[in-house]
Amino acid sequence: MAEIERERRALQLFEAMLEIDAGARERWLAEHAGDDPQLRGRVTQLHDAHCNNAIRTGGAIEEAAIEEPPERIGAYRLEGLIGSGGMGSVYAARRDRGDFEHEVAIKLIKPGLLSEQLTERFGRERQLLASFSHPNIARLYDGGETDDGLPFIVMEKVEGIPLGDWIDQTRPSLPERLALFLKVCDAVSYAHGHLVVHRDLTPSNILVELTNEPKLIDFGIAQPDGTERRDADGGAPLVLRHLTLTPGYAAPERLRGETATTLSDIYSAGRLLNFLVPKPRPAELQAIANKATASETDDRYQSIEALAADVRRHLENRPVAAMPPSSRYRFAKFIKRNPAASSLSLVLAAAVILGLGATSWNWIEAERAREEAQQRFDDVRGIANFMLFDLYEELQRRPGNTATLHRIADEAQTYLVRLRNGAMSPDLRLEIARGYHRLSDINGGPSSENLGRTQEARQAMDLALEDLDALANEFPLRRDVKLSLAGALYSDAVLSFIGEDDNERALASSRRSAAIYQKLLEYSADQPQVRLAWYRSRLQAARALPWLDRPGEGIAELDRLHNDVTAYAKPRATDWEALAVLATISSEIGNAYVWEYAIDDPRYMVGLNHADLAISRYTRLIEIAPRVERPLLREQKLSALYRRSLILGDLERWPAALADLRQAERIANEAIASDPDDMEAVSKRETVHSQMIYALLGVGNTTAAIDLARSLYEVRAERALGDPNNASLASEAANVRLALADALLEAGRRDNACGVYRRALKDWRTIDSRWPLNEQQRANNITHAENALLRC
């Protein structure tokens, strides 16, 4: 076994061995290390080092000190060995030249460990670390090379003891342990803010002073996210990477030899929390640690600040984000914070569930003391989140609740407005922005079930984007802000594209969203949810292009995207989310091809093939996806059936087109039967009916076509009058009026048809003057009506 492979295997075995009871570890190792005595010896060495509480610098890999350290380094005289590690040794030293003396610690890097390239990087990072000024990070004063060419750094000598010794000697209380943990998180946050990853966040690299102040030491060869790949000509040697890696605290991606990122530090911080708080742990702290140490990076906290915020919520008896969401949990926390107000809490809970009629901000104003007022502010903050997420989702799953959902959305908005007008920390600003994003999706976000209130959706989305853009400018390094902004931009693109017919904005927002996701993937490719979100944003951008008279660009992007997602999904046959993206891409490709190519062009049939593929994929998805996701997938299948009916209509295969539309109508009817107030399902059924008019004409049923067109026009015209500034509603009404004229003409009622054509043409010209149409839209509507009137 090669040295690099043995080192990797040893670290993997050691990581797993830590989960085995101490008495069974030797036997377990014998069973799993095979016949390789060197491998068993290396794992044993790692285990012995782990059990040793001596000061470590550079990880838990204990090695011999540098054989013959120099007596002096510059102005410093070495006075004794403090400790040794994989990267080198640390010596106590004293400055005894010049006009002052002081004690320091000097770290000598082992000879031959760093290549010339890594030595240069070490120098750059030494300069960066020297600029750090944080009370919980040991200062770095100087650095360079000895006469023998050994790299060294001169750093603050911390008069403290390792974290484990501090726990054993002082027996701190749980609040004291968590207070120290929060200070460590603050130090890590400071480093991350300067694009530095610690890489070895372990108890041995935290010293605690007599004042109970922690000092974070030994950043090792930390570097800004992503530079390892750029600097190291194929990557730093695996053994070197592992020298700054402590098994038991190293994230899974690091054990695989991948680049350390801020998410790796978050994993180590979760392990550190487990070290500080022994079992049996409070359920909330266990949930926090579990989230921080999740195997998948997407499942962890996305910033060290978010991890620290959850610990603070635990200390303040506020709901912890890592806990499973439930109304019972949130209100239990509220009552625990306010035992005297428990009866008020129960009344409030009942009011929320029964209709939210009794909620009020007045109970905050009734508090005279500032601290009590702040407590009530936090309660309202929790209630707003509870309404928008927990309660809304719970009621949404149950048919017949649309009216109540409207009231919840309105009540939650009043809370968001009041929260937004108060003093806000960055975390609260982010939370409120996410709340407005959620409120926009609830009101009218077309990518999910919504209340059909497009204007309210736009207002909430604009507030969300305003706040998220400001946060992104102020905190350009916060990953959670970037993810929130990218997600909101995607929702904005869908709202603009479907709800408002604003294709320019849809394209711009989706491209901004995709660019943010792509940048995040450059730092770490192993982020499945981020990758899928990137695909969706690219898909939305491609969808908008044909509507901007750029179908060729749209087809090219869709083809590239289809190839990318197919390659991603191939080894993930049960990943329903990836398959759902593929199904949607197939549907969009079908739409784009028939838009761009004439019916007699062979490429037109490629569009039909993709439409067939999309429907078969949705049918399969509805079988394998989680039950809670199936209603949305059925809606997407409805859309795919509708699109295929358009292609079949162009090919004059009217019986097949009508069959697709009938199937789509049944899906919509099932949703409406479950909830008559489901405006999204109502809108989709109307869209199906608008095409069904032509399918009925195609099979010769003109009477049914005229009746359907009249009833549909009445509904859409009334809706457009109620929202005169909505381009989408105006276009929908004009579209069905034109269809009614076509049906009347087909039935031989020329005079009636000509009158309706004139009114339809006037409608479309008005729309074109207010919201300019693209070339295809003008041909389909204005030119169509003008040509029909030539026969009148």
From TrEMBL:
PANTHER family: MITOGEN-ACTIVATED PROTEIN KINASE KINASE KINASE 20-RELATED, SERINE_THREONINE-PROTEIN KINASE YBDM-RELATED. InterPro entries: Kinase-like_dom_sf, Prot_kinase_dom, Protein_kinase_ATP_BS, TPR-like_helical_dom_sf, Tyr_kinase_AS. It comes from the Bacteria. Keywords: ATP-binding, Kinase, Nucleotide-binding, Serine/threonine-protein kinase, Transferase. Pfam families: Pkinase. GO terms for molecular function: ATP binding; protein serine/threonine kinase activity. ATP binds at K107. This is Serine/threonine protein kinase. SUPFAM superfamilies: Protein kinase-like (PK-like), TPR-like. PROSITE patterns: PROTEIN_KINASE_ATP, PROTEIN_KINASE_DOM, PROTEIN_KINASE_TYR. Gene3D superfamilies: Tetratricopeptide repeat domain, Transferase(Phosphotransferase) domain 1. Coiled coil: none annotated. Residues 76-341 form the Protein kinase domain.
